Amino acid sequence: MKSLYSDVEAESFVQKFPGVPRDVALRVYTSRLIGRDDTLVMHGGGNTSCKGSHKLLTGESVEAIYVKGSGWNLDSIEPPGLPALDLAYLRKLRALPKLSDEEMVNELRAHMFDASGPNPSVETLLHAFLPHKFVDHSHSDAILAITNRPDGEKLCREIFGERVAIVPYIMPGFTLAKACAEAFEKHPKVEGLVLAKHGFFTFGDNAKESYERHIALVTLAENWVASHSGKKLTPGFLSPREPRALAALVAPLLRGLLSEPTGDEDAPYRRMILDWRSTPEILEFVNSAECADLASTTPLTPDHVIRIKPWPCVVSDPDFDDPSALAQQLEDEITDFRTRYDRYFAENVEQKGVQRKALDSFPRVVLVPGAGMFCFGPTKKDASIAADLYEHTIRVKTQIHATSKYEALTLPELFDMEYWPLEQAKLGKAKEKTLARQVALITGAAGAIGSAIAARLMEEGCHVVLSDFNAEALSRVCDELGKKFGKDNRRGFVADVTDEAGVGELFAEAARLYGGVDIVIPNAGIALSKPIVDLSADEFERVQRVNSKGYFLVLREGAKLLRKQATGGHIIIIGSKNVAAPGAEFAAYSASKAAAHQMAKVAALEFAKDGIRVNVLAPDAVFGDDKNPSGLWGEVGPARAKAHGIDPSRLEDHYRDRNLLKARVTGRHVGNAVVFLATNQTPTTGAVIPIDGGHAQTFSR
Fold first, then answer.
1. Which of 264, 295, 327, 600 is the most buried (most CB within 10 A)?
2. For the segment 95-150, what is each residue's pLDDT rounded down to a tens digit?
């Protein structure tokens, strides 16, 4: 590990934040240097601080500590992420014989200089009790690879000598803060503190010194680990197929098993979102003979348990040749995991004599030989955090296995952290949106209707797989939606809906990306405007191939995936007003849409027993806008204007003026109807809902 500190770059941060103290600007800079290295900290882990002064409204300057606040990540922290507190007062707290967590949090909040700032780190007192101007704290992989073994403390002394003091594991909070201060005072020449099975602190008189001490000491640990390679993992499971194919098979089964019934008919399941990975390092681990034993051990640091549970679920010797047997294996393993977790909770509550509300007992990490690592969370971001953490877990456990035995926290110690109210608060309690934890797949997603539907679904918290034949337009729409709703919440996939294998791969990719789908929206279509007598058989067949066969393939493959998950769902077909009220010179299009409407009705009959609702939306003349115009109307607009005997420039006005409400029908209106159905506002299936401003011909009869 090399120091990335640059005097020029450091000074640029001072210039970038002219309204804050120089030391705070430098604190931001070195915090980001630490945060950008995922072998040191990940996803909100670690914390940093600096000491200085704060000017009160009275003009008086008082001692202050600026410490990382909750909700800020070190790799992107800015000055507001370092709330200032009354340092002189916090130091007085050290004289107390005890201080509860609730009292500590109250004292921290009560002695902030800006009451609107983020909650200070739960390790603020540890930073405050140390005398140094700058303090850095990380969860270095290399340090954990040294400490998480039976002889960890002995190795630390051999590797670091007198440069660090060692603090045995203590839960974060007041007691740990006092222990760290005492450890330093006994060894006042040390450059850092190793917190056994937890993390690593360094300190200094300036930002550069504290940071470079951190890098130098971590490098010593890295060099030791690299020079002690020892034994490797023993190959075990031999995979019959490529991991991608196996993942597409396993993911929807797991996602269904990890969906929690709610008892609410209108929102029957709380689902989870997947992040699947199969790097060579992961496959070597999950396919090894040692996988089950190593995986049964606890996480690298106590913080990780909030994201990945005390251990993963391991599927032993999966039978990929027999789908029914595989489904039963997965169910049995998930059931065993949940039983074990429930027992872990009950035993610790009883032994500790505490009252705690049990968290859900579903695993967050599932290891499947041959297929890889399947990580789950309420969102793709949460699942990715779990995956990042367990990737590092695999690396460190493999390194330790090479020369020793892995040994981290005990389950009782881990329980204290997992059910620590202060740690639980980090995850937040914000109310989820109506389509949170769900996944939609939309074909024709780059067009005016498809992109608008995607936007509405994402507004409601849905993850979306967007598919289109036009790669350039699809990329543009994905970029726009990613900027607005978050890049993790949407993925694009180029596909031809008339290609049977391509549609199968589209749904396989959705399974690998998010675990499966809950809302399938066949929307990709083309149009052709010609009198019947001028319509060639090839032209007629081309429209049927896209609008009828394409809908059939998407509907069929979508239903298969929904059935694998066994949690119900929606198929919402984008039909047309033309089925009920056809127009002249539009035979090929109207016939293809009529086929789609009829398919939906049959599908509603067949899939109701699976809890899958199938409905049709019948919009009229969605033109889009300048930013995303309708490709369909771009193709047939002139011919339709000719058929209606009007100038092409008046075509949109013509369609608006002919409906009863004189309404301009937009893609957002279609998206609103999709959300209405997808959120189970009514128990409806087999219906056709017009979105056309009102036409007497489309009235139900």
1. 600
2. 999 999 999 999 999 999 999 999 999 999 999 999 999 999 999 999 999 999 99
CATH code for the domain in which residue 497 is found:
3.40.50.720
Q: What is the CATH number of the domain that holds 281?
A: 3.40.225
Q: State mean pLDDT over 477-505.
A: 97
* Cβ count within 10 A of residue 462: 26
> Please, what sign has the CA dihedral across residues 269, 270, 276, 281?
negative
> Buried (b) or exposed (e) across 149-173, using 16+ Cβ within 10 A?
beebbebbeebbeebbbbbeebbbb
* Six token digits for residue 283: 């496959």
Residues 198 and 279 both lie in one domain: no
Structure token digits, residue 507: 């749904």
Q: Is 527 helix (H, G, I), strand (E, B) or coil?
A: coil
Q: Is 589 a catalytic residue?
A: yes
Residues 578 and 601 grouped into a single domain: yes
Is the per-residue pLDDT at 639 higher than 70?
A: no
What is the percent of the chain with per-residue pLDDT over 90, rounded to a whole number? 87
Average of pLDDT values for 492-500? Answer: 97
| 121, 70 contact by CB (below 8 A) | yes
Map residue 663 onto helix, strand or coil: coil
Reference 697, options 620, 601, 586, 589; nearest CA is 620
Q: What's the rounded Cα separation, in Å, for the pair 487 and 478?
A: 8
pLDDT in tens, 469-479: 999 999 999 99
State yes or no: pLDDT of 435 exceeds 60: yes
Question: Average pLDDT in the 318-324 region?
Answer: 95
Residue-wise pLDDT for 548-565, tens only, equals 999 999 999 999 999 999
Domain membership of residue 689 as a residue range: 439-620+665-694
Q: Is 2 helix (H, G, I), strand (E, B) or coil?
A: coil
Residue 456 predicted with pLDDT over 70: yes
State which of 427, 451, 472 marks the end of a domain: 427
Question: Contact, 557 vs 548, CB < 8 A?
Answer: no
Closest CA to 507 of 241, 251, 324: 251
| CB contact at 8 A, 224 and 157 | no
Among 528, 457, 499, 501, CA closest to 676: 457
The pLDDT of residue 657 is: 84
Tokens of 674: 């999709």
C-alpha closest to that of 522 among 598, 450, 432: 450
Of 390, 514, 589, 655, the catalytic one is 589
What single-letter DSSP state applies at residue 232?
P
The CA distance from 581 to 159, in Å, is 81
